[in-house]
Write a structure and sequence with these properties.
Helix content is about 40%, strand content about 25%. With about 260 residues, it is of the alpha/beta class.
């Protein structure tokens, strides 16, 4: 069994009287891929933001390779945390400077984390790794397609060589054919680098395709967890069954789904 690259232990996060994350724990092995699924408001994105460091847990721990996440303030601490875990968001256009070329994006990231070195070779490697090539180096975000922009976001995240890559609905805004390309790209990168993936998604098709294990969240709590194939083939919790039944297919009955949701 590979060593854990990421451990979340007893995470809690409340906003006033709302318990957004309630005693959430999971383990991601090195080179593994874990999906966190649930509807809007289930707590999955808040959990991801705690892992990345964008939110502070009220209680619980996040560990990388057995050590607590780098804490404290200051530039050096922030950079250390960024090198442990990187995040790719649903809409990369919002996180890319429209005035900055692809090459400049990568050079700025490399210069911030690895100053004083020549980054020419590394920029070329990153572009090749995400399937863009040097032809896209001079392009601005507005000149790229949605799939190409997401490849840039992935390259920027990989530039710091993180232990964990958190993907928050990272293919939800893409066309189906482009989704498949990005998911295949991520599978190849995981095989090459042994990076750990934490997929945050509501799409059970994505979970089935790219994760080894899955946890299902509802109202801030984990209601089911296990190997992805086993959970999706024979869900043990009514909420997991509801999520599976909610996927449109021939004979799908929205009224029955709504009734089942009210019963829960």
């Amino acid at each position: 069994m590979p060593e854990p690259v990421l451990e979340a232990v007893g995470l809690h996060r409340a906003y006033g009287s709302v318990q957004a994350v309630d005693d959430v724990s999971f383990v991601l092995p090195e080179g593994g891929s874990l999906g966190i699924v649930g509807e809007s408001g289930s707590g999955k994105t808040t959990t991801a933001r705690i892992v990345v460091g964008l939110e502070r847990a009220d209680a619980g721990d996040v560990r990388i390779r057995g050590r607590a996440r780098a804490g404290g303030r200051g530039r050096a601490r922030r950079l250390a945390r960024a090198r442990e875990v990187q995040m790719v968001f649903q809409d990369p256009y919002l996180s890319l400077d429209p005035r900055t070329s692809v090459e400049q994006v990568l050079r700025e990231t490399l210069g911030l984390h690895f100053p004083g070195t020549d980054h020419d070779r590394r920029v070329r490697e990153l572009l090749d790794q995400v399937g863009l090539g040097t032809r896209a180096a001079d392009a601005r975000p507005r000149q790229l397609s949605g799939g190409q922009r997401q490849r840039v976001a992935i390259a920027r995240a990989l530039a710091v060589e993180p232990a964990v890559l958190v993907l928050d609905e990272a293919v939800a805004a893409l066309d189906v054919s482009v989704q498949a390309q990005i998911l295949n790209l991520l599978a190849d990168i995981r095989e090459q680098t042994r990076i750990g993936y934490l997929f945050i998604t509501h799409d059970l098709g994505v979970v089935r395709c790219v994760t080894d294990d899955v946890i299902v969240m509802r109202r801030g709590r984990v209601v089911e967890a296990g190997r992805t194939a086993e959970v999706l083939a024979a869900p043990g919790h009514p909420y997991t069954r509801l999520l599976l039944d909610s996927v449109p297919r021939p004979g799908w009955d929205p009224a029955a789904i709504a009734a089942a949701r009210r019963a829960l």
